[in-house]
Design a protein that fits this description.
There is one protein chain. With about 300 residues, the protein is α/β, with parallel strands linked by helices. The protein folds into two domains: about 140 residues, NAD(P)-binding Rossmann-like Domain (Rossmann fold), CATH 3.40.50.720; about 120 residues, Dihydrodipicolinate Reductase, domain 2 (2-Layer Sandwich), CATH 3.30.360.10. Helices cover about 45% and strands about 25% of the residues. The chain is built from twelve helices and twelve strands. The strands form two sheets. The chain has a six-stranded parallel β-sheet, with helices on both faces. A six-stranded mixed β-sheet has the order 8-9-10-7-11-12. The longest helix has 21 residues.
């Protein structure tokens, strides 16, 4: 790529500091040009760390970048992403892409109408080892029949994301659910039905039915004090395949994400993890949340 893509970062919270800012400042495909956040002092501190411009207004950020990367709460993301799309900027969206399906649908429509590129930061989908695992599943001569994904962490009990209001209010389904639903639907087929149950204390168990008849189970919790794990396995007449996602998703995933986002900005086209994929996952999350609410 002959010239680095000028990226504007929206947000200055933990994810922006830990991932987005260092990843897009590192290049070689991109450079971090500007930062805007609701807290000007946080934006200024983050921008200064990477010799970027701290913008007082969101429109100022749009004026100095080619593409916009979001690292903000789901309820705050859609209106700003719509403004970015209407300004002709490609967008990298955080998951979930919105707080509810109707807002997510509007965002997808605005991006499509604007004709700009979009990607969703589904980190597992950019990890080379995860891609190898999914390619192996796709190459099987006989269909996979069952699957299981477990994501059990203590992220809501301590660390940089424990103070996140939307995570504490909506739980693991909205936070890690998009990742889980995405991986299982790629591995076994589109999700056509689901049942969600809760054991309380932030635990959710889901049974999924996939197009073609495969079934899978998910166990999600981000408030577990111990026994942390993040893994996936599938089985069928061809045998079994398993992957430890906690080690498979590393810094290489974000290098791939950066390169593919820069290519999207320069070359156009659509990415498999675009805003429509985000909408698909948002709708599944909503169905699971409705079932959990009805069971209370």
């Amino acid at each position: 790529m002959s010239e680095q893509v000028a990226v504007g970062l929206v947000g200055a919270g933990p994810w922006a500091r830990l991932v987005h800012a260092p990843v897009f400042a590192a290049g070689p495909e991109t450079r971090l040009t500007a930062v805007w956040a609701r807290r000007p002092e946080a934006a200024r501190e983050l921008a200064e760390s990477y010799d970027a411009r701290a913008c007082a207004e969101f429109d100022e950020l749009l004026d100095v970048c080619e593409a916009v990367v979001f690292a903000i709460a789901p309820e705050a993301q859609p209106p700003l992403a719509e403004r970015a799309a209407r300004a002709g900027k490609a967008v990298l969206l955080e998951k979930p892409i919105a707080a509810d399906p109707d807002t997510a649908r509007r965002l997808a429509d605005v991006i499509d109408t604007a004709g700009v590129g979009s990607m969703v930061a589904l980190s597992a989908r950019y990890a080379p080892r995860v891609r190898e695992f999914l390619a192996h599943l796709e190459s099987a001569e006989t269909p996979w029949r069952t699957g299981r994904l477990t994501c059990v962490t203590g992220a809501f009990l301590g660390g940089p994301f424990a103070a996140s209001p939307w995570r504490q209010a909506r739980g693991a389904i909205l936070d890690v659910g998009p990742h889980a639903f995405d991986l299982m639907s790629v591995a076994l087929g589109d999700i056509v039905d689901l049942r969600a149950d809760s054991a309380g204390a932030g635990w959710a168990a889901l049974q999924l039915v996939h197009a073609g008849g495969a079934v899978s189970q998910l166990v999600l919790c981000c408030s577990a004090e111990g026994g942390h794990r993040y893994d996936v396995d599938v089985s069928g007449s061809a045998g079994a395949a398993t992957l430890d996602l906690s080690t498979a998703i590393d810094g290489s995933a974000f290098a791939v994400l950066r390169a593919e986002f820069a290519s999207l900005v320069r070359d156009g086209g659509r990415h498999v993890c675009d805003v429509r994929r985000g909408l698909y996952l948002q709708e599944i999350v909503a169905r699971a949340e409705q079932q959990l609410a009805a069971a209370r």
